[in-house]
Amino acid sequence: MSDDTLKLYTDAFNISPYVFSCFVTLREKGIPFQPVMVGLHLKEHQSPAFRDPSITAKVPAIEHRGFWLAESSAIVEYLDEVFPAPAYPRAMPADPRDRARARQVMAWIRSDLMDIREERSTHTMFYERAARPLSERGEAAALRLLRVANRLIPDGRRSLFGAWSCADADLAFMLQRLIINGHPVEGKARAFAEAQWSRPSARAFIDQKRPPYVKY
């Protein structure tokens, strides 16, 4: 690959929901990229070679023609601006109100539902299923997620805003934490999550061969 090829820095096990957001966005937009694994369990993200240019020492991060950027929402917005429509498919909706709503969904998923994220971690999605039922707080978070999903997903549709957006991928990933671990998710929320999970961009992430997991 040439030096101009965009690099996507990922966690070594490829189970981060935020890496997923960036990975599927790159795939949906058709942007060539080189994945670079960062061993969080080995503290590689704290090495000066990664920490200093990324600034926050977080994955995902991208490196594009000498410019580094971390934080998945910022990366998605950057990709949409630097690789704009109509030459590239949009990652965020064209309509200002839809785009604002997509940002709301993405920010909410990143800032709320902590009990689901803790009790149905991404380890339970890609390695070993959860052994315990959701706690009372986890059940409350699941009800909150399903209420919001059913409020947002249009009847008979498999995306939130007509065309695909990164908000679709983020919401589907959160719903799949429940679905994969056997939690009852029915109706349009399940249909939406399964449709998004079957997209080629998502399958390219999901079906990757992963190394044995090391807790960190």
Structural class comes to: alpha+beta
Poorly predicted sequence stretches spanning 5 or more consecutive residues = none
Q: Radius of gyration over alpha carbons?
A: 17 Å
- Average pLDDT for all residues: 95
- How far the N terminus sits from the C terminus, by CA atoms, comes to 32 Å
Total of DSSP H or I helical runs spanning 4+ residues: 10
Helix content percent band? 40-55%
For the sheet with most strands, the description reads: 4 strands, mixed
Q: Would you report the number of β strands?
A: 4
Any idea how many domains? 2
The CATH architecture of the largest domain is Up-down Bundle
Principal-axis shape: globular
CATH topology title of the largest domain: Glutathione S-transferase Yfyf (Class Pi), Chain A, domain 2
Largest beta sheet: what is the strand line-up?
2-1-3-4
- In the CATH scheme, the class of the largest domain would be Mainly Alpha
Report the β-strand fraction as a percent range. 5-15%
Descriptive keywords:
2 domains; Glutathione S-transferase Yfyf (Class Pi), Chain A, domain 2; 216 residues; alpha+beta; Glutaredoxin; 10 helices
